Amino acid sequence: MVEHKMKQLPTFSGKDNEKDQQLPYFHQASPHSQQLREVKSNQSSTSTEIHNTIKALLNHLPQAEQDEVYPMLLKHQSLFDLRKQRIANTQIQHAIRTGDHSPISSRPFPRTLHQQQTLSEHIQQMEKDHLIRRSTSPWASPVVLVKKPDGSTRFCVDYRKINHITQKDAYPLPHIGETINRLGGHKYFSKLDLKSGHFQIPIREEDKEKTAFIIQDGY
Cross-referenced PROSITE patterns, in alphabetical order (predicted)? Predict the structure, then answer.
C-alpha cells in the first residue's frame, strides 16, 4: 500500500533550505565558480521557457494587446510553475474525521497488463516527486485509471467507502445565479488554474494512513 504524503517543498536558492545539501544541478567536486555558472545557466534556461510560455498564452490577442499584457505577466513570472514536480502547498491541513469507525480496506480492481504498466509509471513518478510514500496501513482503497481527452490517463483513488463514514463540513457553495450576475457588464475576465489542486492541501499527519491505496503489485 502507498500512503499519500503532502509536504511543503523547499524554495531552491542554491541549497536545500531544510537539509542544507547540495542540489542536483551542483557538481560536488567542481570549483565554486563552476557551481555559479551552472546555476546561472539553469536560471537562463528557465527564463527562456517562461518567455516562450507567456508568448504562447498571448497568441490569440492582437499584437497591440500583446504588447500591453506581456510586460505585466513577465513582471509576475514567478507565478508560472513550469516544473511538474514542484507543487505549492497551502498552510491549511485537511482532516479526515472518521470518528471511532474501524479501518476500511478494499481489494484492488482487476486490470490488463498494459494498465498495470501505466499504473506503475504513475506510481514511480509520484514517488519521485515525493507526493506518496510506501507504508503499511489498515486502510486500503482501490485505484482507478481514468482516460483523459488527450488519450493519457489520470490516476485516481476510489475513496467512496471512506467518504461514507467521514464527517462532512457544512459549508454553503456559491449560488450559480449570483455568481453570473457579478460577472455581468464586464469585458475582460481572468481565469486561474491551480496545478494539481488535489495535491496542494496537505493532509493532517494522523489521517494520512486513511489515504492508503492498494494495487496488484503489493503496494
Answer: RT_POL
Are 141 and 157 in contact by the 8 Å Cβ rule? The answer is: yes
In 129-172, which ranges are E strands?
132-134, 141-147, 153-157
What end-to-end distance do the CA atoms of the chain give, in Å? 4
What's the pTM?
0.63
Which of these ranges, 27-31, 46-50, 127-131, 133-137, has the smallest mean pLDDT? 27-31
The arithmetic mean of pLDDT across residues 182-186, rounded, is 87
Domains of the chain in start order, with CATH, are: 46-83 (no CATH), 87-168+194-218 (3.10.10.10)
Burial class of residue 132 (count of CB atoms within 10 Å of its CB; 0-12, 13-18, 19+): buried
Q: Contact, 211 vs 5, CB < 8 A?
A: no
Cell representation of residue 61 = 490577442
CA dist 185 and 62 (Å) reads: 22
**Ramachandran sector of residue 20 (left: φ over 0; alpha: ψ -120 to 50; beta: rest):** left
pLDDT of residue 51: 83
**pLDDT tens, 128-155?**
888 899 999 999 999 999 999 988 999 9
